From TrEMBL:
GO terms under biological process: glycine biosynthetic process, by transamination of glyoxylate
Residues where N6-(pyridoxal phosphate)lysine is found: 202
Pfam family, one: Aminotran_5
Matching PANTHER family: ALANINE--GLYOXYLATE AMINOTRANSFERASE, AMINOTRANSFERASE CLASS V
Aminotransferase class V domain: residues covered: 62-336
UniProt xrefs under InterPro entries: Aminotrans_V_dom (IPR000192), Aminotrans_V_PyrdxlP_BS (IPR020578), PyrdxlP-dep_Trfase (IPR015424), PyrdxlP-dep_Trfase_major (IPR015421), PyrdxlP-dep_Trfase_small (IPR015422), SP_NH2Trfase/AEP_transaminase (IPR024169)
PROSITE patterns per the UniProt record, alphabetical: AA_TRANSFER_CLASS_5 (PS00595)
Protein name per the record: Septum site-determining protein
MF terms in GO: alanine-glyoxylate transaminase activity; L-serine-pyruvate transaminase activity
The protein's required cofactors: pyridoxal 5'-phosphate
Gene3D superfamilies cross-referenced by the UniProt entry: Aspartate Aminotransferase, domain 1 (3.90.1150.10), Type I PLP-dependent aspartate aminotransferase-like (Major domain) (3.40.640.10)
Keywords: Pyridoxal phosphate
Matches recorded under SUPFAM superfamilies: PLP-dependent transferases (SSF53383)
Length: 403
């Protein structure tokens, strides 16, 4: 070709698994003068925000909000029910499960880590054995990550509840649904989740900075067992706020709350069932393309079984360093940013450049997904990366067939 030109000008597309694409309605809602925190609209808005958040989580119980990211939510949840010396069971299926377990350990918990690797979900029979062997009920909590964003595995947390019940074990079921709330079906009450942790910047479509912890009465009783919980992390006052500062243990995250209000309006106008279905169809389109690409060459999907895949993130592999080359190419030439591989190889290990991830969470629709897949096809083609054919046709057939 005579010319070499970047085609990156135009609206960029950040297709990483969080922070996700922010809707204009959210950004516009946040772009305002700082509101009064002592009276008026913001103060009046707060109870409704909490109620609408609970509807996203499908819970009628309690909710606490924190100014912080997902890690803050993890710590908040742990601090309210786990004391130094308490035993915690961590069935890990990727980087995030392991990290949550490490946080519990740093807080003084005795952590039993069961590592199921990076390519498969939690094996419930292994967990059943451990719980049944724990006759003294020393295990206080099981930390289950619903979707581990690093491996893109989706675990069956309702089944994990079933395992606890079958063993007659009183441990709390604590769930990380940071990558799945607002994307994959997640039902706190029906699934028997005692504590659920999420954050604003993934399916909830609000910039990073808010963490949410949902908890039921069993969890509140476990909180009451603790002699003290640091005032800042204690969920009691936050979940029973009357004054605005009580919800936040200080100044409210003013503009974020307006962004959250706009996001919750979008979410409930669309409806949870529709949101889950939209993510399922768009994920199926992504899988159809990836399965076609993986027919030839080194292209591979991390989670082989569709029924164990997240609907919001897809972890992929190419021969190193092709994944990094592809990410660089689509970013520089198309304005499309794909996610790096996470927790799949140690820092400094050249194998790292063989992993990448696609984020398809939150504010995404048919043309964005087709655009992302088309961009990847263009990159694979430009870089002469061997792959199977028919990826875009396969994705288009899923999307065309669904509407
Ligand atoms: C993003 C994510 C986290 C961490 O959230 P931060 O906001 O980066 O602290 C934890 N767990 C899962 C499953 C995630 O996707």
């Amino acid at each position: 070709m005579a010319h070499s030109i970047s085609l990156a000008q135009g609206r960029p597309y950040l297709a990483i698994p969080g922070p996700s694409v922010m809707p204009d309605a959210v950004l516009t809602a946040m772009h305002r003068p700082t509101p009064n925190i002592y009276a008026g609209e913001l103060v009046e808005m707060m109870p409704g925000l909490m109620e609408d958040l609970k509807k996203v989580a499908r819970t009628k119980h309690h909710a606490a909000m924190y100014i912080g990211n997902g890690h803050a939510g993890w710590e908040a949840a742990l601090c309210n029910v786990i004391m130094p010396g308490d035993k915690v069971l961590v069935p890990a299926t990727g980087h995030f499960g392991i990290s949550w377990g490490e946080m519990a350990k740093a807080l003084g918990a005795e952590v039993e880590l069961i590592d199921f690797g990076r390519n498969s979900p939690i094996q419930m029979d292994r967990i059943a054995e451990i719980l049944e062997a724990d006759k003294a009920h020393e295990i206080r909590a099981v930390l289950g990550v619903h979707v581990d964003t690093s491996s893109s595995v989706r675990n069956d947390l309702a089944a994990l509840r079933g395992v606890l019940d079958a063993a007659g074990h009183p441990a709390l079921l604590m769930a990380d649904c940071i990558a799945s709330m607002g994307c994959d079906r997640f039902e706190v009450d029906t699934w028997g989740v005692d504590i659920a942790v999420t954050a604003s910047q993934k399916g909830l479509m609000v910039p990073p900075g808010l963490a949410f912890v949902f908890f039921n009465d069993r969890a509140a009783e476990a909180r009451a067992r603790l002699p003290r919980v640091s005032r800042y992390w204690d969920w009691t006052q936050r979940a029973n706020g009357v004054e605005l500062f009580e919800y936040h243990c200080g100044t409210a995250p003013t503009q974020h709350l307006y962004g959250l209000r706009a996001a919750l309006d979008m979410i409930h106008n669309e409806g949870m069932e529709h949101i889950w279905q939209r993510h399922a169809v768009l994920a199926e389109a992504v899988w159809a393309a990836c399965e076609a690409w993986s027919q030839k060459g080194s292209f591979a999907i991390n989670i082989a079984d569709r029924s164990h895949r997240s609907h919001a993130v897809t972890a992929l592999r190419l021969q190193s360093p092709q994944a990094t080359e592809l990410r660089n190419w689509v970013e520089q030439n198309l304005g499309l940013t794909l996610g790096i591989g996470l927790g799949m190889a140690a820092p400094g290990d050249p194998a790292r450049d063989g992993f990448f991830r696609l984020g398809h969470m939150g504010h995404v629709n048919g043309h964005m997904i087709m655009g992302m897949l088309g961009g990847i096809e263009a990159g694979l083609s430009a870089l002469n990366i061997e792959r199977g054919s028919g990826a875009l046709d396969a994705a288009a057939a899923v999307i065309g067939g669904a509407v």
